[in-house]
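Archive record:
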Amino acid sequence: MNFEQLRTEFEGKTSKYESLGKNVVESIRILLHLANIKNLSIYFRVKDVDSFMEKTERKSYEKPFDETEDICGIRIICYYQKDIAKIEQIIKKEFDIIESFNKESNLEYNEFGYRSHHLIASVKKEWEKTPNFRGLSKLKFELQIRTVLMHAWAEIEHNLAYKSELQTPKQFRRKLHRISAKLEEADEQFEELKEESKKYQSQLFDEAKKNKLVVEDKTELNIDSLQAFMDSNFPKRIKGLDATGKLLNQMVEYKISLKDLKNAWDKIKPHFKEMEKEYLDGTNGKHSKWAQAGIARFILDLTNENYRKRLKSIDSQKRIDKLMKKYFT
């Protein structure tokens, strides 16, 4: 084998592998977004020429480009173990799978260590019809799917320069295995926590939907209970988790409880439609109706003097004062 010629050939193909990695990553991002699967990161790397040459020589490859399956490597880091199977299912549907293997399944019941799901794949022939995948269907890429904690283990182990059990000094193996066991348990506990959180949210939202949400002095203020309160009382208004989160932070800052918000709403509710219209009529038609978080802020501006101090606009302060005098004096 002419290694200089092989090196030149690899360098000539690098841009194609870069294009493959970039476009596959972007496609996976879109696919996971459509499936509502959140992830920490999706990224790719293309093997450098020296690494490619070293592997070719070490493994005595006769057809290096066919036999080297990880010239383009893509990694998906997700949050929960159950998401791995969902992501795998999407990948298997959207790409041509050459090989699939689960490193975790290779571990015995009493073993702990590297856990990651690997797939060797290529782009489907029909994808070549699009300009960004033209000429890329014959190139392979290796895809690794792992959780954040699996990734932490793999990266730290790699940083310690231990690539296999044989390379790891005996005195460190036990400690590494213990850490791996703890991370595996933590992965399972995060999964349980996620399910419990979903159940709690579902219960709150069901109560909100049926207008059976009870708010007491002891009711905890958190993003779920606040969102449920607004769903129950302002069901037809636009909602957004980011807006709810910002409102929650303000309520915590100004020491306002969920019961305080409920009491304020009970006071404002009989006059709310008229008050909202009068206030917004003074904004030169910029807004027609508030979203959920906007209603809550308006309620607190009218009923909580300390909260109202945050208003920087003199015009806003005047309009609030005018409404207070009209409806509450």
User: Anything to note?
Assistant: Confidence is low (pLDDT under 50) at residues 107-113. DSSP finds 13 helices and five strands in the chain. The beta strands are 39-46, 72-78, 96-102, 117-122, 140-147. The CA atoms of residues 223 and 248 lie 7 Å apart.
